[in-house]
Amino acid sequence: MFQLLNSVDGTLSLSNKLTFYAFPTKTSEFLHPKSSPYLVNKTAKRWRFRGVRLSLRGGSEAADHVKSSNKFKANCCDEGEMEPFPHVQTLRKFPKEELVGKVVMVRFDSTNLLREEEQDQSSQSVSSAVFTIKYLHEAGAKIILVSDWRKKTNSQLHDAETVADMISSVIQHRVVTIKCDYSAVLLKMEVLKKADIFLLENLSECKEEVANNSKFAELLSLGVDIFVNDSFSQSHKILASTVGIARFCSACIAGFHFEESLCQLKKVARTNKRPYVAIIGGGNLYDKAAALHFLVSRCDGVVFVGMMSFQIMHALGLSVPSYLVEPGAYKAALDIIQIAHDRNIPILHPMDFWCMNEHLPEKMGIFPSHNILDGWLPVDLGPRSLNELNSLLVKCKKILWIGPVKFKFSGQCADGASKLAQALNELRQRNCDITVVGNMACQAMVMESKCVLVNDMIENASVLWEFFKGRKLPGVMALDRAYPFGIDWKSAYCNPAQPLVVDIGSGSGLFLLGMARRRKDLNFLGLEINSKLVRRCMDSVHQYGIQNGYFIVTNATTTFRSIVSSYPGELVLVSIQAWIY
């Protein structure tokens, strides 16, 4: 039951109006974990609906199936529930002078630059993607654009020449097409002398791209100095043009659009504002079970508004037509419900639906969610569900909407997404933190608002689902690392103007410490992934009064350029003890 929410000291409390279904709790305050015991019979007696009474049976069964499971800040998860993102090197912080005369390959997102809708050309996501290309061009780099595109993105995408003309009109610079095959490698290098911006052929036609073929990735990288990934929507895939190519370029960095999208992804994981409620649409609950575990363990309430709502209803014991039940999802739904029980937060689902007559499609009717008659097919959220959803959200400080408000037979009268978008736009104007994920959800927000910021939306939901599952994103992991903060060289060394020797993989530090005691005219910096070894080394530095030695903890794959670029003196030597990939 979707229950009205009242704000009490940053928490949500239940009113006595029972409309949307949820599992019952003993106390009216449902946001404090472990503040309430499991379901009790006294609570069940106050509930009028057969479905809720049956949910007690489902809830007790679930107990046997519990599974444990600047603006662009680098930190991701504040509370350590997921491994933080690595600190990646970005075009924003890459030395601009190092771009002059370099050949830079940009993996762009075709869904941004090649859209058919004119109104999308001025969106912020397009602007940041265009800015990446213009920034590189103004810095004096030779640019090779590469991507995959299909006619479903834009029906006018017939060949590479058409795409090049389209990109030219967007970025206001001439784009020349070149082919990518073994026989054209030398030709490719000659062509680079005749223009500044080039476009490779469509990667969707190359099977080696999806296979992350090493030879194909090496072919792409021939003559390329720097790789810029600006296609965040592909970061959950292992592709030759996003992952494989990183092995062959001297620098692999994130473009402006990639950086903004990554920042937004990190923002979703934070629980800095409460109450934080997730609105979940779409289907395939079984495949997304791990991601749903994360959301239920992190949010203050979870609302299902798509096909997954029927799987939750089924697990709660409500009557659900067999054609709406997802095979294999029952146990996964029980696990999700039990996690919510343990945290004493609600899992909510609709109480009514607009339904279409199977034999007379033009005939519509409203039915309770637990009593959809034979011959009627759910197509949209019912009016009472939408009203109570609005009542729920009005007290929230942070909201995530991911997935479409869509059912298997959605068609006419499917305006639930529009009404939800209207409600979220109103809440955004009241300083509620809104994040919308997925193409259909983002389209609904754009249609209902004239001003939707880029940090409100992530169009590719697949990336976010993979992130919520706790999986590392290959496209992110392939980029060069950047040290998460600057080093105060004056505090690290007595004389920071002395030449610097960097020891990558310093281990126990014996080599570096010995050199530091012998060569007082040099400064020594040790980079080591093992934090215990670094602490011991720093203890030795303080114990023996070494004023020209310093150690920091960093991943061995970190680009030391990002660490030493601010060093006031000269870099004279880099010693590599071990390099771990």
UniProtKB/TrEMBL annotation:
It is an enzyme of class 2 (transferase). One of its GO terms (biological process) is glycolytic process. The keyword Magnesium applies. GO terms for cellular component: cytosol. Its cofactor is Mg(2+). Pfam families: Methyltransf_4, PGK. It comes from the Eukaryota. Monomer. This is Phosphoglycerate kinase. The lineage of its organism: Eukaryota, Viridiplantae, Streptophyta, Embryophyta, Tracheophyta.
